[in-house]
Amino acid sequence: MKQRLTFVLLLLLLMGRMMQPAVAQNDTQPRILVQPGDSWAALSIRFQVDEAALHELNPRMNPLRQPAIGTELILPETAVPQFGILVRPKGNLLKTAVQHQTSPWSLAIRNDQSSPYRPAPYQPILVPDGTSTPQDLPVGFTKLELSQMVGVPGQAVGFRAEIEPDLTVTAVLGDNEMDVFSNGRYLIGLNGTGAFFGTQQPTLQIQVNNEPPWEQPLQFRDPANWDYQELTLTGTAAQIDQQSIDEERARLFEIWQQNSGPAQWHAPFQLPINNYLEISSTFGARRSYNGGPYRTYHEGVDFAAYGGTPVLAPASGTVVLAEKLFVRGNAVIIDHGLGIYSGFYHMSSLAVAPGDVVMPGQIIGEVGTTGLSTGNHLHWDLLVDGIWIDAQAWLDQGMDCWILAGLDQPCN
Ligand SMILES: [Zn+2]
Fold first, then answer.
1. Helix (H) or strand (E) holding 334
2. Which of 38, 248, 402, 301 is nearest to 411 (CA)?
3. Is the torsion defined by CA of 203, 137, 89, 140 positive or negative?
C-alpha cells in the first residue's frame, strides 16, 4: 500500500514537471490573430511599439508585405492597446482636427508631429476616441470584414464593407478580379477558389477611385484531406473526345462568367435533393483516369439516388439553361444573382425552361443517368465569380445569408 502511494506521488511530481514549462513558455507573450486593416503601421500605433520591434518578434513574417489576415502575430509584453481611428491626412492636421472635432495641437502631440501647421507625412495618424480599434482600411471604408479568417481552397471567400457614398471600388485576390457589388453604403466582394488553390497567402488588393491601392495578404490553408479516385473509362465513355468536352465547357463558361445583377435569393440555400442514398463523390476529389496522374478534380457534389427522384431548386433564381448537353446530359443552370450559378446534371427529365423564375424547393427535373454518367445520380455544382466551389461548404458556412446581411438585406 505504502509502496503504491509513493509511486503515485512520484508520478504526479513527474507529470507536474513535464507539463509546467511548456504552458508557461506559451503564455508569456501576447498574441493576436491578424484582422483586415492590421497593417504594420496600424499595429505599431495601436500597441505603441516600433515597427522594427514587431518585425524582430515575428521573424517568419515578411516585413515587406503587410501581415497576412488569419495569421498569429506576437506582441511585446509591454504592448498597451490604444483606441481611436486611423486617418491619412492630406496636407496638414488642421482639416483632420476640424473633421473629428478635436484640437489640432493635441492631435500633433499625440502623433509625434512638431506642429499641426506643417504638412503631415502620408502615413496614418491616430485620432483617439476611447472605443475604436485602429485599423488601416482602404480610403472611404469605415468597416471591412472577411467571410472567414483563414481561407480554404475550393471555397468562396468574400469581404463586406461599409463605405462612404460615390466610391468606385475594384478588388483583386491573387491574380483574380473579384466580383464587387454595391448598393451605395454597403459593398460585397466575392471570389471563388479552386480545389488546387493550395496553402498560400494571396494579396487582397482593393482599389478606391484613383487612390494608391490598399493591400493585405490573406492566409489560405489546404485541408489536405481530399478524396482520391481512380476512374477507368471504357466503351462509350472512353470514346468521348476532348474537343466535345472543351466545347461544352467553353459554352457554359460564357454563362457562368456573366455578372448577373442583384441577388435573387432571399433565404438560406437548401440541398437540391431530399431523398438520396449517399454522397457518392465530394467536391474537390482528385481524379486519375485510366491510371494517369491526379490532374483534375470533381467539380461538384454527386448524390447517388433512384431514377425519378425529384431535383429541387436550392434557392430562388432565373433558369438560364435547360436542355440536353453532350457530357452533362439533361441539364439545368440557375442564375441566383451576384454572379452565383448552380447547375444540375444527368437528369432523366426537365421540368423548367430558360427564363423561368424558380422558387426554393421547386421541382426542376428528375434524377437520371443521361450524358457521361455510369448510374443514376445528381451532379450539383455551384460557381462564384466564374469558379467552381464546394456547394456543401457554401451551405455549412452560411455564405448566402452573410452576403445578404452585407448588403443590408434580410435572409429568412
Ligand atoms: Zn459528378
1. strand 329-335
2. 402
3. positive
Ligand 1 centroid to residue 317 C-alpha, Å? 22
Give Rg (Cα) of the chain.
Answer: 27
Between the CA of 154 and the centroid of ligand 1 the distance, in Å, is 15
Round to whole Å and give the CA distance between 46 and 30.
Answer: 14
Neighbours of 360 (CB within 10 A): 17
Taking the centre of ligand 1 as the mean of its atom positions, its distance from the CA of residue 398, in whole angstroms, is 23
Q: Which region, left, alpha or beta, applies to residue 6 given φ > 0 means left and ψ of -120 to 50 means alpha?
A: alpha
pLDDT of residue 115: 84
Around ion ligand 1, residues with a beta carbon closer than 5 Å are: 302, 379
Q: How far apart are CA 69 and CA 85, in angstroms?
A: 19
Given a cut of 70, is residue 7 above it in pLDDT? Answer: no
Cell of 113: 508631429
Q: What is the pTM of this model?
A: 0.87
